[in-house]
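Why do we care about 3D structure at all? Because function follows from shape, and shape follows, mostly, from sequence. That is the central idea of this module. The next example makes it concrete: a single protein chain, its amino acid sequence, and then its structure expressed as tokens.
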Amino acid sequence: MLEDYSWALTGYVQKYPLPAEAFRQKDVERIFCLEPEPPAVDNLNAYILTALREKNLDHLSFFLHHYERILNRRIRSFLIRDGSDQYDPERFLDIKLACRMKILEKLADYDPDAGTSFTTFLYPHISDALLEFRKGEEAWLLSSLTVYKLVRRMAQLYYNSPNPISAFCKQFRCKPETAKAFLNLARGIRNRTTLELTAPDDEEGTGEDVTRDDSWDYPEILSADFLYKLVRAAFEKLNYREQQLLEKRQCICMDCGYVAPMKTQPGFDRLAEMFEYSSTSGAERAFQKAVEHLTEVLVKDGALHAVRLQLKSKTPRKAKPKKCSDEKLPDKQKYAAAIYQYQADCDGEWGEFLFNCETGEAEILSLAEWDTTKTHRFANRAIRFLRDPENPNLPKTAMVAFE
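And the structure:
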């Protein structure tokens, strides 16, 4: 698929090479870092567009150099939810390389004209790569990743529902015999048993759970299901227009849980037509308000934390940088510093910090109410958001959610 692409990286070396013997977690979390620093661009998508245009995978390496921190967070989050060991550097490295292979595999499928960035396009595929790795560890003879996802869903229902077969049939509109077969597979998780889909014992298909084992213990399935319930409850508190905006833009049905391919995601111009907004920017603002409203409800329900940002002032650089092209320079190249106000969990008095655009350093001027006095949890989360290479501009307002 990528036979006509070149990948030389002449003049670049790995900034932090892995040690010959045992390596640590911090070693595997920076394997994509290059030296010298890759050429600066306005956003990460510019690397991908250049790689596709020039058929040169060097630019994909430049993308990975900046994307690595995001990928590390995705892997850590997956390991926490899955109940797996998150402090095994060798395993972390294997998962990370599997994700890189998935990125290479999907590069040729990316269509820039669809209106989504490459990082957004990658999101569901990284999830698939993580599940494929987990599936390989469990050594199951399953026909596809889709079947594996269904088995994991049955495992969640088996732990939380009094009648998992009935719940599975209702959710996926299948026969009780099919649900029973997935239940047999899910019960094999504890022993990593290699099972195959077989016909159920109860030929009449009553849907009763005749194989329930009260000793089931698979706590890693709790997190995802618990979070889904909280999001579902918060979603119900939004008005109808907000619900429709979120479902259409995110390609998901909150009633049945079906997720459509991201290539079907409507742009904001299409949303403006569907919801009769006067402009594309109006549809985008409405969508962002719906996201913020959902976040506020989740924060209030204790499902997650959030820090709200508000730009107070910006200080221009004394010596303006020369433009390399006719494109508009990002804010971090035009301004020396910015002062932001921040609020913890959408409540209480605002705090304030000074952000240095040139160095990425920050100085906390005053703590927000509810922020931690020692670790400055909310302030540091806001600062990390501004440092992210994917945010080259200084937003006037923003809300950053985190677990």
